[in-house]
Amino acid sequence: MAHWLFKSEPDVFSFDDLIAKGDKGEQWDGVRNYQARNNMRAMKVGERGFFYHSNIGKEVVGICEVIAPAHPDSTADDPKWECVDLKAVAWVVNPVTLDDAKAEPRLKDMILVNNSRLSVQPVSDAEWQVILEMAGGTRAI
């Protein structure tokens, strides 16, 4: 299964907000970037991603799971924009900052390190493991 990273400004929609949605989750709406949209189109139910707080904190704070495949974004007037639905599944023990990721040589090719503006991005299996190691694992919500 593939892994992903989802970025959100915590003052707009935080990991706590996703946790509050419970098992019904929330659509990952408002994405208006073709590459990010195409990444969501490639996702399968059950795949997991890091939840990353952008702008404030700039850190991986939790793990979420895709609970519905790509479908029309209800916030878009144009049907070309799609989104997936996500639910929160775990906190990371210690948030991993962008600076931490940039300082880790094993993450030198990670999209987050090289293109921090892309809001929905793939994460390789190796990168997934390194981030989890740096975070000290996960803890239940």
UniProtKB/TrEMBL annotation:
Pfam families: EVE (PF01878). CDD domains: EVE. InterPro entries: 5hmC_binding, EVE_domain, PUA-like_sf, THYN1-like_EVE. Residues 2-134 form the EVE domain. It comes from the Bacteria. PANTHER family: THYMOCYTE NUCLEAR PROTEIN 1. This is Predicted RNA-binding protein, contains PUA-like domain. It comes from Paracoccus laeviglucosivorans.
